[in-house]
Amino acid sequence: MKVIACLFFCLILCSCTSIFEFFEEGFYFDEEKFKSEWNLWKKQDIKNYSFTLKGKLPHWDYAKAKDYYGAILMFGYEVEIIVKNGIMDSFEYIGKTPSSEPEYTSISDMYQKIYDDIKSCERYWKKTSDKGCLLSKHYKIKYDPKHHYITYYEPITNTRSGCILDTDEHEVTVSAFSTL
Fold this sequence. Notes:
This protein is α+β, with helices and mostly antiparallel strands. The protein has one domain. The protein is 31% helix and 33% strand. It has 3 helices and 7 strands; from the N terminus they run αβαβββαβββ. A 7-stranded mixed beta sheet has the order 1-5-6-7-2-3-4, with helices on one face. A hairpin with a 6-residue loop joins strand 5 and strand 6.
């Protein structure tokens, strides 16, 4: 009985290890899930809605605003967006006001820009044999089960020990979605 329990434990441990190794090196994007959710979003044809977007943007003058590690300084933002006829009608920042309009102006715009960024990164991974500091790139994406918009997006980059990346990639959340 102990031998069977030990074998079972080793089997679980090995399968968990292979799951973690999956993200150790290489590029991963669940394109099938992403496109499925995007198509379900489009199929609903929701044209009038509002939502709150929360994320980070590079400091307005990041050439001068690098910290002592050389990383791009980012500041958090939160913005309420109203979409009419599928196009951003208005937006209002909550708290700090960046000097630009929101990085995503509608749910459709968010899907398109995220997809374009991911596909650009994928082309880089396929084309470039020496990734330098980069070990892996994957994306954590969550979707609303009812309306199929992205509720959470986070690009995750793993690097070799001792490497520091100068990037403005960041997580984004969507909340308070409401049809008008």
